[in-house]
Amino acid sequence: MKEYPDLPAEDDFVVVLLTPQLLQALDRYIEEETKGITRPIALRSAFEDWCLAMGYISPREMDRRLN
Questions:
Q1: Whether 38 contacts 2, CB under 8 Å
Q2: How far is 58 from 5, CA to CA, in rounded Å?
Q3: How far, in whole angstroms, is CA 4 from its chain's centroid?
Q4: pTM for this one?
């Protein structure tokens, strides 16, 4: 699982309301793919995976050792 040692600045936070269906899916993701991480961390992890899969960001951009 990804680690996030540096939290973003306050103005970098995005607040979203998820539908019950999306919350259920997120909880399933947490149960099946992680070790019981929190919803915010799971959502960020899933979004990063999606961005990588769609080509919106490169694996190199996600490597915190290089950035």
A1: no
A2: 20
A3: 10
A4: 0.68
Structural contact between residues 49 and 38, judged by C-beta atoms closer than 8 angstroms: no
**pLDDT tens per residue, range 4-63:** 556 665 567 788 899 999 999 999 999 998 888 999 999 988 998 899 999 999 888 776
Residue 8 DSSP symbol? P
Structure tokens at 32: 């099946």
Interatomic CA distance for residues 25 and 31, integer angstroms: 10
Q: Which segments of 1-67 does DSSP mark as H helices, in order?
A: 20-33, 39-54, 59-62
SS3 (DSSP) at 15 = coil
Asked whether 48 and 62 are in contact (CB, 8 A), the reply is yes
Neighbours of 10 (CB within 10 A): 6
